[in-house]
């Protein structure tokens, strides 16, 4: 069942889901124990996060949020942090370094870009309000692994980035056999490799497949399980092989993007993310290459989405 709002997953664990899981429509989680809660990620703006905080009151009235974990630094997982600022906020050191006011203002500025890139941003981020957000970074950081105590219950944080972003972490609740994966798992949508290399994301998939968990809450999409991880891993291997082959053949990046036939993957939502994914493979294969500029990539994605001058 993929309805907007609070989902009781049993064992004192919840998910707050936002269909359809496309650009900016992220999920959040709530783990309760001993009369307190740990929240996994906030949402993309203050209104959405306020609505979620209201919607989870049946849980948090008796188990207030004492800890917030940000799985990574992307705005759709952290821009609501200021509304949970009384909690301890935890993220990897690499993610924390990117949770700045400049990031907030950079995204707000993208909505004002002229031309096809701006048109695309206004289409996908139109429903979100970035003005008035105050960046609220973590109060505690870690690298590698750490464990948190939620009212006597163990919650494990495992850094798997750089993969989707430089500082990705996953959140395991061992006694519930449950995992909150953040954006190292997309279900129904196309994963986007901002940081990479893609090999590290594939390794993160292997780790998720090995963990003793039965259910997985992705950063975007409905609640799933290991077969969803295996499926997304296949897409990442496809990207690695197809982009890698074209790099070896000497194709330039635009020719590579244009010549890849997505085949079975064309049915995933946001399939135009292939543009960034190919660029990322090229960036890592050739250290002398001018690093990808997000604005250029946005132009390529916008073009694949049919936005032209
Ligand atoms: Zn996200």
UniProtKB/TrEMBL annotation:
Domain Metallo-beta-lactamase: residue ranges: 25-220
Pfam families per the UniProt record, alphabetical: Lactamase_B
InterPro entries named among the record's database cross-references: Metallo-B-lactamas, NDM-1-like, RibonucZ/Hydroxyglut_hydro
Organism superkingdom: Bacteria
Protein name, UniProt field: Metallo-beta-lactamase domain-containing protein
Organism: Pseudonocardia ailaonensis
